[in-house]
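Friendly challenge for the regulars: who can give me the structure tokens for this chain first? No prize, just bragging rights.
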Amino acid sequence: MRCQVCHSEMEEKAITVDLRIGDKLILVEEVPAKVCNHCGEKVFTPAITRKLQNLVKHRRKAPRTVKVPVFSLKQSAA
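First reply, four minutes later:
Bragging rights claimed.
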């Protein structure tokens, strides 16, 4: 499959997807996707997209959590 953005070859990989819902950040690991090694474009099958949507819609307690540092460019510009 060729990338729709840069027309380079895409490769099947398992990636981590970050989903932002309101002020919440959810990470989903081991998501199958076609990824362009040149520009980074990611493509999911319709089935994977539905699974991601269902995961967000029917959120349960995550098996683990991580702390994420948050920076502000506005605050650090001083």
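The first strand starts at residue 10 and ends at 21. Strands lie at 10-21, 24-36, 42-43. Your move, everyone else.
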